[in-house]
Design brief:
370 residues, mainly alpha, 2 strands, globular
Length: 370
């Protein structure tokens, strides 16, 4: 049954992706439309997150096997990103690492829905206990990833990035004809490096694919890889020194410290908000200093740079957390929503702001950034 479903998804990837996108758009406009609409919206979004990861995995495997073609019937070429290479390598080396990433991703996908259900069914007191245990669980999982990776940066997302854009894929008929033509070709001879694990084409295949010496230079230019493309996977993220490790531990522990502060002092108190902000600022400075120490101006690797950029954007959540939101942000957002409501083309934006304001105020995980 599962095999038939996988075959259907691969054969109709573009249509399946359109359905996913349509349902995901629906989740953005559902909140505020009827009683418990936010729970229905979050349930759909959570389910789509799990299904989307599964579908991406199916398409990635099919692409690697040469089973996917574009709209012209040509096989899709998949370029693995540094992020995917890094996490794939660690997952292959350790089943525990793979299990930990799956558990952490599952919690990240479902934490908002869990909090909503607890608040609606059991009230505030139990809510903060469950939130605390979710944050504790995520801390344990992230500490495990930190250890298994050899004291390297723990990225916010730990599931593979999408490698294939379903909107660019051809039809099942094209895929079948392409698969038949691939099967009839002479098998290519490849050489695999023992140390790097990378596969390289034979000279005969290069000459055949480049249609002789006329296109050989262009072919070689197109196949050129950057340093990160040929580097061992684990070198894509550098080991922390003592300062960077301390900063990473602060970043991992920060959400729980914030939750404990809220439980002790309340969400309207400035002290948990300020303490969380200071911890995050200190963590960022320590990690950046450690990564640049002794590197003589060498820039961060792609994964490190993208993760630091993601963490920088997390500071915007402080504008949406009480008491800052209650004191400064709420009135300005309300004015902006009212202004948008009078404009034909952007009235939907104003409606979305009004619908999501109660969610930002009521639910912790909407602005947790954890």
């Amino acid at each position: 049954m599962l095999q038939k479903y996988a075959k259907f998804v691969v054969g109709n990837a573009s249509q399946v992706n359109s359905i996913e996108n349509g349902l995901r758009m629906l989740t953005y406009v559902l909140p505020g439309r009827f009683a418990d609409a936010e729970i229905a919206s979050e349930a759909i979004y959570t389910l789509l997150s799990f299904v989307g990861v599964y579908h991406d995995g199916l398409l990635a495997k099919a692409a690697k096997s040469g089973l996917l073609v574009d709209r012209q019937g040509q096989p899709i070429k998949v370029d693995t990103t540094p992020f995917n290479r890094y996490h794939d390598q660690l997952s292959r080396e350790s089943d525990l690492y793979r299990l930990t990433t799956l558990l952490l991703s599952g919690l990240q996908f479902s934490e908002k829905l869990i909090e909503m259900i607890i608040v609606k069914r059991f009230g505030e007191k139990l809510r903060w206990k469950i939130v605390s245990w979710i944050e504790i669980t995520k801390i344990v999982l992230r500490l495990n990833l930190l250890k298994l990776s050899g004291r390297r940066m723990v990225t916010g997302a730990v599931v593979p990035e999408r490698m294939v854009d379903p909107a660019m894929l051809g039809t099942t008929k094209q895929a079948t004809s392409a698969g038949n033509s691939l099967a009839s070709e002479t098998p290519s001879v490849q050489w695999k490096g023992n140390r790097s694990g990378l596969e390289f084409k034979s000279v005969r295949d290069i000459l055949q694919n480049s249609e002789g010496n006329a296109n050989l230079s262009g072919y070689i230019t197109g196949e050129t890889r950057d340093p990160e493309g040929v580097a061992p996977a684990q070198s894509l993220v550098r080991r922390y020194g003592a300062l960077g490790l301390a900063g990473e531990l602060l970043f991992i522990l920060r959400p729980l410290i914030y939750v404990i502060g809220i439980r002790k002092m309340g969400r309207g108190d400035w002290r948990p908000w300020a303490l969380s902000l200071l911890i995050e600022l200190a963590s960022r400075q320590m990690v950046r200093t450690d990564l640049h120490a002794g590197k003589k101006g060498q820039p961060e690797h792609t994964i490190e740079r993208e993760e630091l950029s993601r963490r920088k954007w997390l500071f915007l959540y402080y504008l949406l957390r009480s008491p800052f939101f209650d004191r400064f942000t709420e009135s300005r957002l309300t004015r902006a929503a009212n202004w948008c409501g009078n404009k034909p083309l952007i009235s939907l934006l104003g409606s979305l702001i009004q619908d999501y304001q109660p969610l930002w105020q009521q639910y912790y995980f909407y602005t947790a950034g954890s």
